[in-house]
Amino acid sequence: MIIRTTSAFVVLLLLARLLGKKQLSQLTFFHYITGITIGSIAADIASQTDTPFLNALISLIWWSVLTWLMSYIALKIPKLRILFDDKPDIIIKDGEISVKTLRSARLHMDDVMMLLREQNIFSIQEVHYAVLETNGELSVFKKVGQQEATKSDVKADTSPPLYMPAEIIADGKIVQKNLVELKLTEEWVMKKLRKQGVESVQDVFYAQIQTNGSLYISLRKNGI
Fold first, then answer.
1. What CATH number should be reported for the domain whose range is 166-222?
2. Average pLDDT over residues 204-210
3. HEC string of the chain?
4. Domain 89-146: CATH architecture, name and number where available
C-alpha cells in the first residue's frame, strides 16, 4: 500500500505539472469533472487493493493525456474551443436583462440576484454589463456612476463608455465575431496597430479594446 500510494502521489504530481494551471483552477465544467475523475482514479490506486495497480495507473495517465490533448486542440482551433469549454454569456447588457440568455443558461432571477449579491450589488440598476463565465461565476461591469470611488463623487464625466472591453486579437488572429458586435473593421484595427508601431497582426499576442476606444496591445516579442 505504501508503494501504491507513493506511486500515485508522484504520478499525480507530474500530471498536475503537465496539465498546468488552467486545469488546477477548474476554469470550466469540463475541467471540474476532469479534475474530480483524476482524483478519483488516484484515490483508487492508493486505497483499493482490489484495483489492479497497472491498469489504474494506465487509466490515470491516459485520462490526463486526453485532457491535455483537448486543451491543446481548443488552443489551436477556436471553433472547437466553444465545444470543449463553452463560451461566456452576456445576461445583462446596457442594464437590460437578456431573457433569452437566461433561459439558455437555465438560470432564474433568484440565481442572478444571488450572484450579484455575492459582489455586493443589490440593484440591477447598478449593472451596465454582467457576463456569466464558463465556470459559472458572474463578472460584473458596473455603471460608471456606481463604480468604487465613483466619478459622481468628484463631479466627473459619467457618460456611458464607448465600448465594453473586449478581445480584438488573440494569438495573432483577429477575433471577427467581436469586431462585428462592436461595429469595427479590420482597417480600424490596423490603424490602431500602426499608431503603436505594429505592422502585422501576427506580431500581436493579445489586443483588447478599452472603454474609451483605445487598444491595449501585448506583443509576442515581449516573451509571452
1. 3.30.240.20
2. 91
3. CHHHHHHHHHHHHHHHHHHHHHHHCCCCHHHHHHHHHHHHHHHHHHHCCCCCHHHHHHHHHHHHHHHHHHHHHHHHCHHHHHHHHCCCEEEEECCEECHHHHHHCCCCHHHHHHHHHCCCCCCHHHEEEEEECCCCCEEEEECHHHCCCCCCCCCCCCCCCCCCCEEEEECCEECHHHHHHHCCCHHHHHHHHHHCCCCCHHHEEEEEECCCCCEEEEEHHHCC
4. 2-Layer Sandwich (3.30)
Residue 193 predicted with pLDDT over 90 = yes
What is the per-residue pLDDT across 84-131, written as a single tens digit (0 to 9) for each?
667 888 988 888 888 888 888 888 888 889 988 998 888 888 889 999
